[in-house]
Amino acid sequence: MGAQPVQKHWLARIWFFLNDSADRSHEYLVQSRNMATAGAILGVGLVFLTAWMMLLGSEAGLPRSDRLHAVSGQLTNASEGKNDIWITLEHHEVRYDYISKENGFRAVWDGLCAGCQTTLWIDPGDTSSTPTVFQIAVKGRMVRSYADVKAAWISDNRLAPWLFGFFIFSAVYLAFYARRQHRRLRASELP
Question: Which has the least CB within 10 A, 50, 127, 137, 145?
Answer without folding.
Answer: 127
